[in-house]
Amino acid sequence: MITRETLKSLPADVQAPPYDIDGIRPGIVHFGVGNFFRAHEAFYVEQILVHAPDWAIIGVGLTSGDRSRRKAEEFVKQDCLYSLTETTPSGKSDVRVIGALRDYHLAPADPQKVLTHLADPAIRIVSMTITEGGYNIDERTGEFDLKDEAVQKDLKNPENPETVFGYVVEGLRRRREAGGKAFTIMSCDNLRHNGNVARKAFLGYAKARDPELARWIEENATFPNGMVDRITPTVTPDIARKLNEKSGLDDDIPLVAEDFHQWVLEDRFADGRPPLEKAGVQFVDDVTDWEQVKVRMLNAGHIMLCFPAILVGYENVDQAVQDSDLRRNLENFLNRDVIPTLKAPAGMTLEKYRDSVISRFSNAAMADQTLRIASGGASKIQVFWTETVRKAIEGKRNLSRIAFGIASYLEMLRGRDEKGHTYESSEPTYGPAQQKLAKADDYESALKLPAFDAWRDLDTSELDRKVIALRKVIREKGVKAAIPA
Ligand code: CS2
């Protein structure tokens, strides 16, 4: 366990927070305190607290259950301190203890406590990493899904919410009633136009709750779009042990991430913002081109690599990218399907970006997991591949690589690799009926899964035919035999 006491006698190579930890105060509430948030937003905020001590972060977890409770206990026991090890592809590492997260609440344990923070004028930003699928948008209509059970529950009992939408909107209602200001709602998820998606989601909920409140939120809150980037693996007990061995710390919640990190953000804040430019955040007027490149190359490439890699039996991303067949497929996908239909932001070359992505995937010191990348594949496919798929179908381009990606995803969902090992592929948005489709033996019925909803309005007959044929090849001859030339 590390505590405030530990900060007084850190091992020589471990950096301490560069500010007085008793002198910082919260200005941000963050929903979804996962590893990515801890290695990204918290890492950036950590560096500016020395200049602006009133932007520390209060974390909120929304899920109940044993795992969430254990996580909350671990955070609180360590006074929300944790170590971050940054590793370069050549294996060089740096360790620091991060103190920017100053408190952590499990919302279901004390909803009113969370609402009190959200109503507090000191909180000027509410940020979130709630996953690509967490915004409750129906891909077929593109609208916030009011029929969702949890949303319905919150609408019936809005002052005791359970969803992030319920919390944020109730927090804003209290601020309005007190004559206060709205806060900035800042999504840090890997979505194209994450701010616009958040806007649609929170206003969608607010309109159903109270149209006048929704109008006030629309006029007073802001939803900046941002591109976020840092590969942050899951920390298994084995990785945790190795990290501690190396750092000399005894951290119950250590973290590892690549040395690369990037955050491009629109400068639209409702009530001020931390001077994040001092930590390297790029503020721009329009983030569109940046996020397109990141999502359509890095994230899309990640799943194009990892779905088939899981079938081959690779556990780690660096092993997958060292495999010449899988790497060639990834390069062909980026070179032929993505780059020709993508616009580079000024000053960026897509070929260079591609090379950096491949080098980042090769970072063996992180032991990033193929199953982490594949988890939530249904939402990731829609967010990361849609643009490329739509452009390919509409432009009558070659569909083989996309079909191979989809066929690999569907075969991967069946939970058994080519060596006969079974694994758990997690699809949190699939209910029992969809799980059944995902495990079905035939090659066709899984094409009804919502993973492909975002292009269902197009004529997919050729794509579907190819997917079915490739699934057959994968099952009969192995995934490598199905890789398009
Ligand atoms: C990954 C991301 O889970 C995924 O699909 O592609 O978590 C990726 O590591 C981050 O977006 C990197 O910024």
Automatic annotation (TrEMBL):
Q: Which terms are listed as keywords in the entry?
A: Oxidoreductase
Q: Which Pfam family, giving just one, matches this sequence?
A: Mannitol_dh
Q: Where in this chain does the entry annotate a coiled-coil region?
A: none
Question: GO: which molecular function terms?
Answer: oxidoreductase activity, acting on the CH-OH group of donors, NAD or NADP as acceptor
Q: Pinpoint the Mannitol dehydrogenase C-terminal domain residues.
A: 286-458
Q: Domain Mannitol dehydrogenase N-terminal, which positions?
A: 27-278
Q: What is this protein called?
A: NADP-D-sorbitol dehydrogenase
Organism of this sequence: Gluconobacter morbifer G707
